[in-house]
Amino acid sequence: MRRRQGGVPRRGALGGARRRPRRADGGDRRTRARIGVADRERLRRDGDLRRPAALDDTSGDLVSAQQLDGRVSAWGRPVIDFHCHFPVPEEFTPDADAAYAAANGAEKLAKLRDDWRWYQEQWWTAYGFPFPEDIEPPEDVQRTRWEAEIESAQLDAVVFVTGGGNAQLARIVAPSPRMVGFAHHDPFAPGAADELRRAVVDDGMRGYKLIAPALRGPIDHPDLRPVWAAAEELGIPVLVHFGPLDGGGGTAWHENISPLRLHDVAKAFTYVPFVIPHFGCGYPRELLHLAWACRNVHVDTSGNNEWIRWMPYELTVADLFRRFYETVGPERILFGSDSASFPRGLARKYYDTQFAAVAEVGIPDSDLSLIFHDNAARLLKLPTVGATSSAGEADGAR
User: Fold this and answer.
1) What are the boundaries of each domain within the chain?
2) Quick check: 281 and 243 in contact, CB under 8 A?
3) In a 10 Å sphere around its CB, with 0-12 CB exposed, 13-18 middle and 19+ buried, how is residue 44 labelled?
């Protein structure tokens, strides 16, 4: 069974007009956001955000022949989608499934899978998406389809964070100048650090993707230090999923469920840009605290963010953008969609929702350029389209 991340999309996630809470000093959230931008400009001017000069070069060996042009997307601005999955058959939790079957029996595992399928059907139906294909076509067909999606939407680039293994994904993205691939192998496997180096240096992978609740051990285990050291040495971003996995009927608890489990790792490897997707996927408070403590922690906005329906308080996508913009700042927010399978292809509804959300919040155009394009370009060492020479100082990447 191919496992997919995410949950049942919510209709009307942005809702109607919302009254902005007032601060005790009479300012509202938009005022506080403007103050935050001014403070960031002051810090840049005074040099407080500088990294060591030796770590400031982003024009090294990872810059490929990709000559992106910052073309304007269907949404009126250049876009790099930082979070997609190339649609090939793939198991994300085989070890967990095998352990469950051994402990509880194959029949119960089958029942859990049936429950998961039921939730998935509710998800696809609620959002009006066509169901994924039962049998996915060969990878060359899927690549052609995705190339057509990229051209139709006029995206500058799409990042596939998974795709059937490092070698397969490298083979898939190599012919396509607007496709970027991430390594996504098991960090606990023997030789994982060397495999990361090989995937980046030989295969051209530009980052590393992990699913924390699918790992066989704690993400802060000492055995993983060589992997983090390799990522730091290579100067690549590491994207780590925390929170519920597979949406309804999936995994809601694991020793790696909270983003705060990454705290000591992010502190120890402060030059690695860690990216936590889906606004923390049910753990926005924990992600905010982690990002507060660690300037090398970023957030991506990808997915339907259905988890907001399962919070004990009202929350919208606009609320998430507002809070992360006001605290983490625009330099550490990256746009993504979590698009994957066909016939849906590019999840344009997720794009529409996020563009509506940032319009509601009132984020300035220069900061939108960071969120939707230049932050990703900077971490991936691709051409930027805005004035982001100072913004790069917030990521901690080499």
Assistant:
1) 79-93+130-386
2) yes
3) middle
Cα end-to-end distance, the chain, whole Å: 39
**Residue position matching structure tokens 């909270």:** 258
- Cα separation of 115 and 389, whole Å? 49
pLDDT digits (tens, 9 = 90+) for 261-291: 999 999 999 999 999 999 999 999 999 999 9
pTM beyond cutoff 0.85: no
CATH class of 79-93+130-386: alpha beta
**Max CA pair span of the chain:** 64
pLDDT in tens, 48-65: 322 322 233 433 333 344
